Amino acid sequence: MGQSVVVPGSRDVRATLDAPDTDASAVVVACPPHPQHGGHRGDSRLRAVGDALGERGVACLRFDYGAWDEGRGERRDALNAVAWASDRYDRVGLFGYSFGGAVALLAAAERPVRAVSALAPAGTLGGESVAPAVERIDAPVQVLYGERDTTVDSEAIADRARERGGTVAVLSADHFFVGAEERIGDRIADFLAAHC
Fold this sequence. Notes:
Distance between the termini: 23 Å
Number of strands: 10
CATH architecture: 3-Layer(aba) Sandwich
Mean pLDDT: 97
Number of helices: 6
Order of helices and strands: EEEHEHEHEEEHEHEH
CATH class: Alpha Beta
Shape: globular
CATH topology: Rossmann fold
Radius of gyration: 15 Å
Helix content: 25-40%
Number of domains: 1
Largest sheet: 8 strands, mixed
Strand order of the largest sheet: 1-2-4-3-5-6-9-10
């Protein structure tokens, strides 16, 4: 059971901090999928990443966005969560799934983190293309997406990540990765724990 956290800022942002049994010096901020399509901090992919990080001695802060704001406020929520985490941990990483993948990449382009991982990231956020932001990230980048994904188009982001030496994997899955959460959680946690 995680610890409840209220993320400081002008928006109502609630979070759950999953901390390992030992004192952690690193944390990953996890950005959920689209809130208007049921995305929330309890998403199975976010929980799988949080559980896998805990097994590796890294904490995970899973948060819910404040009121819908076309991507602008949601990005601010992520930046506020990273600021909260940076005040408490030595090393901070970012992870996001789908809409949250776009949020995580854009946030990492604005505020330094140790690493960022995006699972099936959306290609745009609030009308802004996400791919150019990858070039502004001063940290290792991981992008994973499903070869049968018809929900979002992550290829331009993956191409930019490859060009800058990032870690990219095309998985045999659709957008939802049903039944593969634990395997994907381990893969993402391995990457983030190695850099955080």
